[in-house]
Amino acid sequence: MEKLRIVFMGTPEFAVGILDTILQNNYEVVGVITAADKPAGRGQKIKYSAVKEYALANHLPLLQPTNLKDESFLAELQALNANLQIVVAFRMLPKVVWDMPSLGTFNLHASLLPNYRGAAPINWAIINGETKTGVTTFFIDDKIDTGAMILNAETAIGNNESAGELHDRLMQLGSETVTQTLALLESGKVMTTIQEDNAEIKTAYKLNKENCKIDWNQPASTIHNLIRGLSPYPAAWCFIGDKGEEWNVKIYQSNIVIEAHTLAVGQLICTKKELKIAVRDGFIQIESLQFPGKKKMNTAEFLNGIQFTADAKAY
What we know:
Blueprint: E1 5-10, H1 13-24, E2 28-33, E3 38-40, E4 45-47, H2 50-57, E5 62-63, H3 71-79, E6 84-88, H4 95-98, E7 105-109, E8 117-118, H5 121-127, E9 132-139, E10 149-156, H6 163-187, E11 203-204, H7 220-229, E12 236-242, E13 245-258, E14 268-270, E15 275-279, E16 282-290, E17 297-298, H8 299-304, E18 313-314
Parallel strand pairs: 1-2, 1-6, 2-5, 6-7, 8-11
Antiparallel strand pairs: 3-4, 7-9, 9-10, 12-13, 12-18, 13-16, 14-15, 15-16, 16-17
């Protein structure tokens, strides 16, 4: 049995859950690598990554390189004398980094590879209406999410499950899968499977303003999947126009109402407690939304403070 000396690399909350599980299982973490601090929000206050907060609270040695090929960083990394590196939601590593430890560097990715390689696997699985997803551990190579797979674990996606809810479940599943991967590495029993490429592979593209915008001409199920696949962050959005004004509105939660109607696509239907938007095959019922300058609200709360005319439209 080889005693593991681990360097952990990660940035967001998702990575914290995995790092915590590694420590809870009494593995030795000799160093943590995370993103450099950056200013955030209106006041541009310096914000630490979730992984940095955790590392400081648990007195773990911490490095925050801006350049992963920098000689002084590489010397510090080498000095940690790790025999294994684990990467969870960090960034692409140069070969000089991932090739350093004797047992290699493995990554936990929140999809069933080879599907949904890329930046936003949890979101795209839901946006594309998948009924299952999972997590995969694999050894890093010189491309993104293409290395030899070690283990994977599968889970069903609920019909109305949001990206936030799935994120939390995959963090738990990922923690278990990383622990199992560590046990295999420790005992020298790792078997890998090479990823096979084919034309059917789906990609987890980076999210941006364009691919988060709702197209009300799409079927109700497509729109509903986009809304839950982007909730709570970065959130699906659209414009709502009424009385000569236009608002950029985020929509967090919806339901589908399949029903024949003769209304124009995008037409708003309002009662005191309900807001529906007409689509080709029925309506999208809005359950939770946010107008500019306001907090996120449920629909009944929101309709307390605003009245739309019959001409109000989403687009």
